[in-house]
Design brief:
- It is built from six helices and eleven strands.
- With about 240 residues, it is α+β, with helices and mostly antiparallel strands.
- Strands 2, 3, 5, 6, 7, 8, 9, 10 and 11 form a nine-stranded antiparallel β-sheet that branches. The chain has a two-stranded parallel ribbon with strand order 1-4.
């Protein structure tokens, strides 16, 4: 191999190396550019305004979701391409192949992210979240019958102290467990959602800035005061 060929290989190798970002390490008080400047899916979509349910002109009683106003300016990254997704992780664990990652930049800070980490590591991820954030500010419980096929993977995943057994009015044994763990810390809400499966229990991790939540800039979190899971953590 001559010297020119070796130099070209090195340059190509450098060009192919992409920066990576572990979302669990983000300091939300820092500028978004500190985290996103070297990430290749840099062409986020600029969004002007906030989300509101407004009357549909074609149907008087129908409502539709629209962006309203121009004051709020955000940048939304929908990361679905496998090569782009490989640049992101959570506690070092990659995301599930079929699920995308979303990041929202607002007022020069990262105001939101959502990721579905690798399902086989769900118990480790929950433990690390508890170590990082402390005791949850609240939980939202779900219940399954003891014979339900979805229960055994959950029992293997969640801490035993988080699971409660009881008998219902028909004297059938039921099992209660957290479907959502929520932490409110330093102007942020963190949400761990358990995604039930017959073999593997996976999770969805969300972090959302409370001001961005109240400003209704994030699709899917556009009715903050009526959000059935996170609404009570706004104040």
């Amino acid at each position: 191999m001559n010297r020119l060929s070796a130099v070209l290989i090195i340059l190509l190798s450098i060009g192919c190396n992409k920066s990576t970002l572990d979302l669990s390490t983000i300091d939300f008080s820092q500028p978004a550019s500190e985290y996103l400047k070297d990430i290749s899916p840099s062409k986020g979509e600029i969004q002007y305004g906030h989300w509101e349910l407004v009357k549909n002109n074609s149907a008087e009683d129908d409502l539709e979701l629209k962006l309203v106003g121009k004051e709020e300016v955000s940048k939304v990254y929908h990361i679905n391409d496998p090569s782009d997704k490989s640049q992101f992780s959570f506690f070092g664990y990659p995301s599930i192949g079929m699920m995308g990652i979303e990041i929202v930049e607002y007022q020069n800070k990262i105001a939101f992210y959502s990721i579905y980490p690798e399902g086989s590591k769900t118990s480790e991820i929950l433990l690390k979240l508890k170590q990082k954030l402390g005791e949850p500010s609240g939980v939202v419980l779900d219940t399954l019958g003891k014979t339900n096929i979805l229960l055994q993977p959950i029992l293997k995943t969640l801490p035993k102290d988080d699971i409660t057994y009881f008998n219902d009015e028909y004297d059938d044994q039921q099992v209660s467990f957290p479907e959502h763990y929520i932490w409110k810390r330093n102007g942020m809400i963190y949400q761990f959602t358990l995604l039930q499966g017959s073999e593997v229990v996976s999770s969805k991790i969300v972090a959302i800035d409370i001001k961005a939540f109240k400003d209704r800039i994030i699709l899917g979190y556009h009715v903050p005061d009526k959000d059935p899971v996170l609404g009570r953590f706004l104040n």
